[in-house]
Amino acid sequence: MALKNQLSCWLTYTNETTHKIIRDNLDRAPMFTGVIEGVGPRYCPSIEDKIVRFADKSRHQLFLEPEGRNTDEWYVQGLSTSMPEEVQQKILHSIKGLEDAEMMRPGYAIEYDVVSPYQLRPTLETKLVKNLYTAGQTNGTSGYEEAAGQGIMAGINAGLRALNKEPFVMKRSEGYIGVMIDDLVTKGTNEPYRLLTSRAEYRLILRHDNADLRLMPKGHELGLISDERYNDFLAKRQAVTDEIDRLNTVRVKPSDEVNAYVMSHNEKPLKDGVLAADFLRRPQVTYADLLRFIPAPDAPLDRRVIEEIEIRIKYAGYIKKAEENVAKMKKMEAKKIPDMIDYDAIDGLATEAHQKLNKIRPETIAQATRISGVNPADIAILSVYIEQGKIAKVKSV
Fold first, then answer.
1. Any residues with CB less than 8 A from the CB of 378 and at least 6 apart, and which?
2. Where does residue 193 fall: left (phi above 0), alpha (psi -120 to 50 degrees), or beta otherwise?
3. CB 22 within 8 A of CB 91
4. pLDDT over threshold 70, residue 270
5. For the purposes of burial, counting CB atoms within 10 Å of the CB of 303, is it exposed (0-12), middle (13-18) or buried (19 or more)?
6. How far is CA 212 from the centre of its chain?
7. What is the pLDDT of residues 250-269, one digit of tens each?
8. How far does the chain reach from its first CA to its final CA, in angstroms?
9. Which of 46, 135, 267, 269 sits CB 3.0–4.6 Å from 259 for a disulfide?
10. Where are the alpha helices (DSSP H) in 302-348?
11. pLDDT tens digits, 91-139
12. How are the residues of the chain apportioned to helix, strand and coil, as percentages rounded to the nearest 5?
């Protein structure tokens, strides 16, 4: 259902006068004077940062966003700043449409202390303090979704620990939360971390349409999904499987109607029958089109089921390759590395590998492969060392 009676946002711009005020007062901005040493979020720069970094731009757009229906306050999105309050007043009044605006609260800059992500386990428990789980900006991330994703994982694992149950670690192939946490604990971060889809190597599998297929069983097992909702999911999953199986047996036979449709899309007419699944794999064919030429299923299918069927059939070849890569990675994920292994006692590892492995202390061979500076030869030596039972001596404490 479309949302109605929405409040409008408005667009305005900075100008040369705005930019001159900012440039003339850069010595009073904590980010530029060194009072604040931390690196700000890459994708949310302050207005003074934008003026310096993009000096060739004559203006920057600002969105005026209403704070609510029953207030006259507006948020000026794009004008975040650490300038002194009187300078902020001048900046605000230099902008077209805001000449007479009253500033309710000044902008400000803050600097966070963070837990080094290297000091976290994939469960988000700290390595140094048992039973302490951390999440959000304290782990070096920026963004509401990133904080929420860590929060639910830290909460799940804290609860499992309290119940003396096995921890839950989401794999990179299971969800973007898994990608984010693995990036943090394996690679660390020198700036506030934002989760981008480009960080995931299994993007073809991590789709919005199959989120329930990937994670609903785990959520139900953890007690986070009700039986009613889970049963609805099972019905959907079965419907998808049954219809795909049916389309791999039913055939589309040549006919005047079929060939007229095919030729209208600049393809050669059918001479022999083809499997319905193969016919649906054609780019221009939708599931609704297909049902014109084959019997419909016994019961009408839900929109979500149809979407999943089309995606899985049309991209079957690509999905299969991705799943094969996941299967290979799962084998390495199953190879655990002992907690107290002494990497310095393993002959043959490169010096950088010794340093990185000691610093990060990966929990699996798969995690070790993702550490910058640990090459395939190091992984091979480490794998053989563990498989042969030559676990390195434990360092004395």
1. 349, 350, 353, 357, 368
2. beta
3. yes
4. yes
5. exposed
6. 16
7. 999 999 999 999 999 888 88
8. 63
9. 269
10. 303-314, 316-333
11. 999 999 999 999 999 998 877 788 889 899 999 999 999 999 999 999 9
12. 45, 5, 45
Asked if residues 133 and 141 have their Cβ atoms less than 8 Å apart, the reply is no
Name the token pair of 311. Answer: 């995606």
Q: Find out whether 257 and 292 touch, Cβ atoms under 8 Å.
A: yes
| pTM score over 0.85 | no
66 is written with which tokens? 């209403």
Length of the chain: 397
Closest CA to 294 of 272, 279, 308: 279
Helix (H) or strand (E) holding 64: strand 61-66
Beta strands in the chain (DSSP E): 10-13, 61-66, 74-77, 251-252, 274-275
Q: For residue 186, count other CB atoms closer than 10 A to its CB.
A: 22
- What amino acid occupies position 379? I
Paired tokens of 237: 């999953």
Structure tokens given for 147 = 């904080």
Q: Tokens standing for 391?
A: 């676990």
Residue type, 389: G
Q: With pLDDT > 70 as the criterion, what percentage of the chain qualifies?
A: 96
Secondary structure (DSSP) of 121-172: -TTSBBSSSTT-B--GGGGTB-SHHHHHHHHHHHHHHHHHHHTT-------T
